[in-house]
Amino acid sequence: MDSARSTSRYTYAEYLTFERDSALKHEWVDGAILGMAGGSRRHNALALRVGAALEAGRRAGCVAFQSDQRVRILATGRSTYPDLSAVCGPIEGDPEDPSGATITNPRLLIEVLSPSTEADDRGAKWLAYQLVPSLMEYVLVSQAEPRIERFLRLPGGGWAYTDVTEGVLTLECGAVLDLARLYAELPV
């Protein structure tokens, strides 16, 4: 996401119209429309590999999405494009998006960390994601080193943290992330 903040404020409906007519993706945060930067070769290759593992291992009844799937956090209104997401069960659309293109009930969200997005992915965006009732798993994938961090929602509402630097991590949706395979021969 572009770090420059717009001083103009837009309604969510104005954002949806802007986004529909734009060739680029934008997030909507507190009335600001923020352009998203393109990913590096390394980011794109890593996201593709994680997505392939997600699709190959997903359980019946779950649907995996790549980065073009918009997610809205109804509690804050924030609209994002996570690198990967999954919904298990019926997909719930955003009632304010007449096109039906926005989902509101992800069970899994995955962000491949970039230098320009890591602070937001770990900070404000993560705080907002925690307000999504359906979210059970939030996964951060490092580009800098073989490392995957997972936050798993506990029955009491808290989050368990796992930091994996070798071996495999099995996600709740059934996908298996094998770090050796994900990070082998990644472009610089």
Which features would summarize this protein structure in a list?
188 residues, alpha+beta, three-stranded mixed beta sheet, 13 strands, 22% helix, 28% strand, globular
Low-confidence stretches: 1-6
Instruction: Indicate the mean pLDDT.
Output: 93
Structural class: alpha+beta
Number of helices: 5
Helical content (DSSP H or I, runs of 4+): 10-25%
Topology pattern, helix = H, strand = E: HEEHEEEEEEHHEEEEEH
- Assembly state of the chains shown: single chain
Strand order of the largest sheet: 3-6-8-9-10-11
Query: Could you describe the largest sheet, including whether it forms a barrel?
Result: 6 strands, mixed
Termini separation comes to: 20 Å
Number of strands: 13
The radius of gyration over CA amounts to: 16 Å
Gross morphology is globular
Short description:
The protein has 188 residues and is α+β, with helices and mostly antiparallel strands. It contains five helices and 13 strands. Strand 10 (148-153) and strand 11 form a beta hairpin.
